[in-house]
Amino acid sequence: MSLEKFCAILDKAKSEGYRGIGLYSWTEPFLNRTLQDYVLEVKKRDLECLISTTLSLRRIDNLDATLLAKPDLIDVSISGWDQATYQINHVGGNLSYVLANLEQAVSIVQWPAATVFPARTGNDNSSINSSSDTTSY
Questions:
Q1: What CATH number is given to the structural domain containing 89?
Q2: Residue 116 lies in a domain
Q3: Whether the predicted model's global pTM rises above the 0.85 cut
Q4: Are 52 and 24 in contact (CB under 8 A)?
Q5: Which among 52, 67, 51, 49 is positioned nearest to 103, based on CA atoms?
Q6: Which of 14, 33, 55, 57 sits 20 to 30 Å CA-CA off 65?
Q7: How far apart are CA 109 and CA 64, in angstroms?
Q8: DSSP state, 29?
Q9: Cα–Cα distance measured from residue 111 to residue 113, given in angstroms and rounded to the nearest whole number
Q10: Domain limits for position 41
Q11: Spatial separation of the C-alpha atoms in residues 108 and 64, rounded to whole Å
Q12: Torsions phi, psi for 45 (to 5 deg)
């Protein structure tokens, strides 16, 4: 979708009272090489910006720019803690790419009062940690 059309949709969503936009659906958001521009447009309109990603690409050239555009939440879905489990749901996937991208993301994000939410497991979004506490940096 062109950025121009996206902006028109954002304006309509904002005028109808929407509070946030999720930049994800049926594909990996970081396949869009200008994702950071879309995040910036969402933020310009004072809307919450959510991204859900697997971070499973070998190289994400716009990871820095997208994170520096300051989306409000990035949900990283990891389908296993070892390569054998991970590749069941991600045929041909490489867990080391995910972990390397996650490490890079952590090194980029230095937002004041960034919040870390407890990890979730399974499709029911249940928390691994039964505490509802969050940790702020």
A1: 3.40.50
A2: no
A3: no
A4: yes
A5: 67
A6: 14
A7: 9
A8: G
A9: 6
A10: 3-110
A11: 6
A12: -95, 10
